[in-house]
Amino acid sequence: xxxxxxxxxxSPLERYMAEIIRDWGEKYxxxxxRNFDEDWKEHRTIEPALEKLMVDYGIQTAVWPEEFxxxxxxxxxxxxxxxxxxxEEIGRYDTGIAVSVGVTLWPIFVIAVxxxxxxxxxxxxxxxxxxxxxxxxxxxMTEPQGGSDIENLDELKGxxxxxTAKLDGDEWVINGHKLWPTNSGGVADLFGVVCTTNPGVPxxxxxxxxxxxxxxxxxxxxxxxxxxxxxxxKNSDIWFxxxxxxxxxxxxxxxxxxxxxxxxxxxxxxxxxxxxxGAMENIYxxxxxxxxxxxYRGRPLKENTAVAAVLADIAAEIEICRSAVYTYARMLDxxxxxxxxxxxxxxxxxxxxxxxVCDACCRVAERAMDLLGHYGIDRNYDVEKHWRDVKIIQLxxxxxxxxxxxxxxxxYDCKQL
Length: 417
Ligand SMILES: Cc1cc2nc3c(=O)[nH]c(=O)nc-3n(C[C@H](O)[C@H](O)[C@H](O)COP(=O)(O)OP(=O)(O)OC[C@H]3O[C@@H](n4cnc5c(N)ncnc54)[C@H](O)[C@@H]3O)c2cc1C
Fold this sequence. Notes:
Strand order of the largest sheet: 3-4-8-7
Largest sheet: 4 strands, antiparallel
CATH class of the largest domain: Mainly Alpha
Bound molecules: flavin-adenine dinucleotide
Oligomer: single chain
Number of domains: 3
Shape: globular
């Protein structure tokens, strides 16, 4: 059974990536998935799975331009669709791995996606990702005083950012404290760091997006946090203490950093919705199997009207969510038709997508738990794992509330939120 997919929009690269991810997932995730929770700190089983996908299957090179050895995804007319598909396919196996992979590509989007490709910085950092060695990145936005406000650029214009970047000759000197970035806790090799050049002043010119190699003096990371699920994603504190990087490591410069950083928001929403969709599909697969096998009144569970009605609702949620994810992805593919990926309109559409797909996904996981009874909460059946994981997708990037604010601002022209 296949949910809605517009085949004529499926590029050869998307199809290829879907195939390799399924091959990888069956071989390197499924046999270990039930042990991932216990592996949250050491990543003894998680890291080899990541390494296979990123290095051997080559995903860590995907976004970089072809002239630097990458697959050139950033220049593809199917950029959004491929990103969504990669997240959907990995999300079927493990949304923790999906976010860890997605966030490695994420900070690179600011400098490697057309029309904003910074060839000098690509030349500088792409070689790191071409090594035959697991190489990860992190996008460091959230700070102890709040994450949502930093993403809430249209309203606050970077006013609350406390991580500072001061120019000293030809170098930026960075000081600050970040919380929660995916792939912190010692995983990432490169950070994209949100800084301000003028703390407390609401002006996008002061918003600086600066690349910081993780091994520089003054960069310190904490131990990974222990959270409800998503063990494959390590999150932690990062401290920057008088960290010096060359001036050219700033992505674009005054005004443009804030402008192109917004692709982080639109693609972050797409990726979140894509991986939530993948999790829903796996829940559907598990339900299909268990509801055919388990019996109530001598009949397979799925042949009972009350159960069939819930199953129908679940299938309908997935059908609709998949259509919505790829509609938005296709809009991101074609800025010539739908406007820049960093426009307020595309951000509002992305926030709407994340809001509704995550809501649907949490509902699907909850209903699956209801239907399966003790099989639902049993860690041998994987549904409770998705149930714990998908709640986390709903919470990040400002949670439901920031999504609602951005949607209301655009669709109702609210000016004072
Ligand atoms: C698994 C995971 C991965 C993460 N990965 C990253 C990452 O890669 N990089 C990174 O920088 N951060 C990351 N985060 C952090 C995450 O993005 C933040 O936790 C999130 O944005 C919320 O920020 P906060 O926790 O500081 O809460 P706050 O921003 O303090 O928000 C608190 C509450 O207020 C609500 N709220 C926010 N804005 C408004 C508003 N305008 N009006 C009304 N209510 C509002 C929020 O929804 C929330 O309920 C990650 C978090 C998790 C759990």
